[in-house]
Amino acid sequence: MNDPPGSDEDFMAQALAEAARGLGRTSPNPPVGCVLVQPNGSGGEVVGRGFHPRAGEPHAEVFALREAGERARGATAYVTLEPCSHFGRTPPCADALMAAGVARVVVAAGDPNPQVNGRGLERLRAAGIAVQTGVLEAQAVRQQAGFRARMLLGRPFVIYKYAMTLDGKVAALEEGGGSEANGAVTGPEARARVMGWRNEADAIAVGVDTLLTDDPQLTTRGVVGGRDPRPVIFDRQGRTPPTARALRPGAVVVTAPGAEAPALADAGAVLLPAATLEEALRGLHDLGVSTLLLEGGPTLASAFAESDLIDEVRAFIAPKLLGAGLSPLAGPLRRMNAAGMLDMYALEQLGADILVSASVRRVAAEPTPSPRTGGA
Question: Known catalytic residue: 279?
């Protein structure tokens, strides 16, 4: 059900839509949107909109204030993340809102950055500006999950995406020839959604077996104005061929410590030696990756699951029966009462397929101490 026009929720939903325009492009900063509204008899008139396009450029509030001009005075600012209160690459947004004469600020979620962490809200209140928080907080926290994982977990936010048949199979046994030769599990609507997710992710990961079998491009083909995520190939022994289609400049190959792969380095790949998945994710964090879309096969996904490194699952279920085949996870057998319970937050039909989205862990809205921080 849609929020009523002119409500705080309605305007915050518009701010979240603005923030979504920066997804996959702002790391190490969060995606943020801002809508400025002048009150009137019908609930309010939007006089300014803005979003943060990329690190180093002005924040969402600045773009919205520029568009509003003098009409920002006395307006309400709807911001998806607490306005910053410190000088980073750009001046504090809290100061910009104060200087523009904004009368009220509505914030979806607090900023876990230790340099902000409530200080922006305090600064606004001290200036006599009315502040309200927590409007559409859950949606904002989910949208900012990559930034929050960097701040609170010191690693990227990991989304495991897979598609399976109604009897729980992601691929036939010993298919050979890859998915292009054997046919996709899902229909075109589901595949288009995946391209959209890739456009919003910083990086996309597969294991070397998937790469050798499918030779995937790992691009956002078909997305107008899309940009390709950074490929990450988990390949302990450096078996990736230099001619692999995913091995474009900047691609990351995660190897075992001591593994030698000079041909991959010559092809433009970044070699990331790591003894564990946790170490690999910390290395990706240091390379500026905030969100990692995990598209590898059952072996890689199981390794992430066993290490408790999957934060969200997006599973397509196709109305097909395959019989013998591979399951989404290839881990050890367990009893049903040992299965992990996820928090399903969305259920959607795309063509003939069903999409189930569920959180393994919710990246907290409130900050906790972290040894690593992101940019500003």
Answer: no
